[in-house]
Amino acid sequence: MENLAKPVPAKEYSPLTLAFMGDSVYELLVRNYLVSEGNCPVRSLNKRKVELVRCQSQAKALTFMWPALSEQEKEIAMRGRNAHVGHVPKNASIGDYHAATALESLFGYLFLTDQSVRLGQLFVLAMESGRQEGDESFAVSHLPQ
Hints:
Elements: H1 15-36, H2 42-53, H3 55-65, H4 71-81, H5 94-112, H6 116-131
Helix pairs in contact: 1-2, 1-4, 1-5, 3-5, 3-6, 4-5
């Protein structure tokens, strides 16, 4: 996946703009991951995708990967977490929603700064976070480390 945006230092984007980009990057990674597991009905793919991208799962992923983040990555995530989002989905806590925004800001930042290897590493950790709790839909045994 190539960044087609004109070069602008990623720190100049607002955290919510980074989250806007990161939301789509994360979802595309999840979709790619699910399709790479093998062919199955689209309804099943969509159900699993929704579970993986919902804010509760993203919040859990951020907590799991936090110790592996650099100080710069933590700073970007904190900017996203502290951003005024204006609304919270009805099925999410404010804490989970802010944590999901933090994760999305981080993924948007990494994408816009062309750090695809790091994106992959953190995505593997995100999927591992679910596997730690026994959710096999998060398994990442086929992904490169």
